[in-house]
């Protein structure tokens, strides 16, 4: 997994008024949930600010990154856990980060990449990717940049489901029956199939 450095500054005020003025100055309120827990066992959040520009490479990309989060000189490894956009302007409103370490597995979504020329496509079908990302649980240092799915032997009208996939060191959390990709019958393929069955 690639890494990216993001610099932030600790926030002293976290109310609505402070957040509003922060956004006016091109800042994005963020929270880092650490490995530290409070007395109720809930993760303790560190509130900080990052510029919109500082988040651009992390947010507007198909890649997944480990973030070297530098908050006022203190660096921690983290992943982006959640992001909120404005419903109208699409401006970034808030980002949640999760601190990671080498001993605790994390949950994150990883892009799916289809590889190979499917048998069904050769027969005139159309390959459709139904799930662009899969949710996995693993130690962060074994999570790949993308999950490669070989579709070479996928025939006409056939599918590959989550339960058929297996990656070393990764636990896939999506429903086993969920369809990842399928070769759909096109009109031309249906015609050819009908002619072959006559």
From TrEMBL:
<keyword id="KW-0689">Ribosomal protein</keyword>
<dbReference type="GO" id="GO:0005840">
    <property type="term" value="C:ribosome"/>
</dbReference>
<dbReference type="InterPro" id="IPR020930">
    <property type="entry name" value="Ribosomal_uL5_bac-type"/>
</dbReference>
<dbReference type="InterPro" id="IPR020056">
    <property type="entry name" value="Rbsml_bL25/Gln-tRNA_synth_N"/>
</dbReference>
<keyword id="KW-0699">rRNA-binding</keyword>
<dbReference type="InterPro" id="IPR029751">
    <property type="entry name" value="Ribosomal_L25_dom"/>
</dbReference>
<comment type="subunit">
    <text>Part of the 50S ribosomal subunit; part of the 5S rRNA/L5/L18/L25 subcomplex. Contacts the 5S rRNA. Binds to the 5S rRNA independently of L5 and L18.</text>
</comment>
<comment type="similarity">
    <text>Belongs to the bacterial ribosomal protein bL25 family. CTC subfamily.</text>
</comment>
<dbReference type="InterPro" id="IPR037121">
    <property type="entry name" value="Ribosomal_bL25_C"/>
</dbReference>
<comment type="function">
    <text>This is one of the proteins that binds to the 5S RNA in the ribosome where it forms part of the central protuberance.</text>
</comment>
<keyword id="KW-0687">Ribonucleoprotein</keyword>
<dbReference type="InterPro" id="IPR001021">
    <property type="entry name" value="Ribosomal_bL25_long"/>
</dbReference>
<protein>
    <recommendedName>
        <fullName>Large ribosomal subunit protein bL25</fullName>
    </recommendedName>
</protein>
<dbReference type="Pfam" id="PF14693">
    <property type="entry name" value="Ribosomal_TL5_C"/>
</dbReference>
<feature type="domain" description="Large ribosomal subunit protein bL25 L25">
    <location>
        <begin position="6"/>
        <end position="97"/>
    </location>
</feature>
<dbReference type="InterPro" id="IPR020057">
    <property type="entry name" value="Ribosomal_bL25_b-dom"/>
</dbReference>
<feature type="domain" description="Large ribosomal subunit protein bL25 beta">
    <location>
        <begin position="106"/>
        <end position="185"/>
    </location>
</feature>
<keyword id="KW-0694">RNA-binding</keyword>
<dbReference type="Pfam" id="PF01386">
    <property type="entry name" value="Ribosomal_L25p"/>
</dbReference>
<dbReference type="InterPro" id="IPR011035">
    <property type="entry name" value="Ribosomal_bL25/Gln-tRNA_synth"/>
</dbReference>
């Amino acid at each position: 997994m690639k890494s990216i450095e993001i610099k932030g500054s600790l926030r002293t005020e976290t109310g609505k008024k402070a957040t509003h003025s922060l956004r006016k100055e091109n800042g994005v309120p963020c929270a880092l949930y650490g490995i530290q827990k409070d007395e109720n066992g809930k993760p303790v959040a560190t509130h900080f600010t990052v510029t919109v520009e500082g988040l651009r490479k992390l947010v507007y990309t198909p890649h997944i990154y480990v973030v070297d989060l530098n908050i006022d000189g203190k660096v921690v490894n983290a992943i982006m856990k959640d992001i909120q956009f404005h419903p109208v302007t699409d401006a970034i409103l808030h980002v949640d980060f999760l601190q990671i370490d080498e001993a605790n597995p994390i949950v994150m979504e990883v892009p799916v990449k289809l590889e190979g020329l499917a048998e069904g496509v050769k027969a005139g079908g159309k390959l459709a990717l139904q799930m662009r990302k899969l949710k996995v649980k693993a130690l962060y240092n074994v999570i790949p940049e993308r999950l490669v799915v070989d579709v070479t032997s996928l025939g006409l009208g056939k599918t590959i489901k989550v339960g058929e996939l297996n990656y070393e060191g990764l636990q896939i959390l999506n429903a086993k029956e969920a369809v990842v990709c399928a070769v759909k019958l096109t009109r031309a393929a249906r015609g050819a199939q009908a002619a072959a069955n006559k």
